[in-house]
From TrEMBL:
Removes the 2'-phosphate from RNA via an intermediate in which the phosphate is ADP-ribosylated by NAD followed by a presumed transesterification to release the RNA and generate ADP-ribose 1''-2''-cyclic phosphate (APPR>P). May function as an ADP-ribosylase. Belongs to the KptA/TPT1 family. GO terms for molecular function: NAD+ poly-ADP-ribosyltransferase activity; tRNA 2'-phosphotransferase activity. It comes from Dictyobacter aurantiacus. This is Probable RNA 2'-phosphotransferase. The keyword Glycoprotein does not apply.
């Protein structure tokens, strides 16, 4: 039986970003877990996956679109999006001059007061391009609001940034002074 790679990817995200304990997994401080442990946990999670292989995980990682996982030296982790209590440790990185964040009109009103906050996640998620931010916002609203983040200026003023993957940046919080609504 062929494995539905989209379903496998969603389950991997749940296991690596939100509920590793439900799968009997323990992530290290940087979010890594043995790929063999993940495969074993996923085999037990769904009877149709009892023949799951590391190569199936590699196929998920190779899927087109956003890169959500990193596989290195027999270990795997989700790049970003964690909602765990345990904060994933990341190395700070110098961001580009500007980044983008897509949101809803209602959230924009709150953001004007408090800035961008991680909310239920560990970090604020930012995009390198406007189009990705627009796609993110359209998941929640038909009237997206796009914010331009003066990322390099914020970084120079002490805001910490982290590279999530090749197109997603993470930050602890972005004060409103660094945000401009793009019309």
């Amino acid at each position: 039986m062929e494995i539905d790679l989209q379903q496998l990817s969603r389950t991997m995200a749940y296991a690596l970003r939100h509920q590793p304990a439900n799968f009997g997994l323990t992530l290290d401080d940087e979010g890594w877990v043995s790929v063999d442990a993940l495969v074993s946990a996923l085999r037990q999670h769904r009877t149709g996956w009892k023949h799951l292989q590391v190569s199936d995980i590699e196929h998920v990682i190779a899927l087109p679109g956003k890169k959500r996982y990193e596989l290195r030296t027999g270990r795997i982790r989700a790049y970003y999006g964690h909602s765990l209590q345990q904060r994933m440790q990341r190395e700070t990185a110098v961001p580009p001059a500007r980044l983008f964040h897509g949101t809803t009109p209602a959230a924009y009103e709150r953001i004007c007061q408090s800035g961008l906050l991680p909310m239920g996640r560990q970090y604020v998620h930012l995009s390198e391009d406007r189009e990705t931010a627009l796609q993110v916002a359209r998941r929640r609203t038909s009237q997206p609001v796009i914010l331009v983040v003066a990322a390099l200026e914020a970084y120079q003023d002490g805001v910490q940034f982290y590279l999530g993957n090749e197109s997603v940046w993470l930050a602890d919080a972005i004060p409103p002074i660094y945000l401009t609504r793009q019309l």
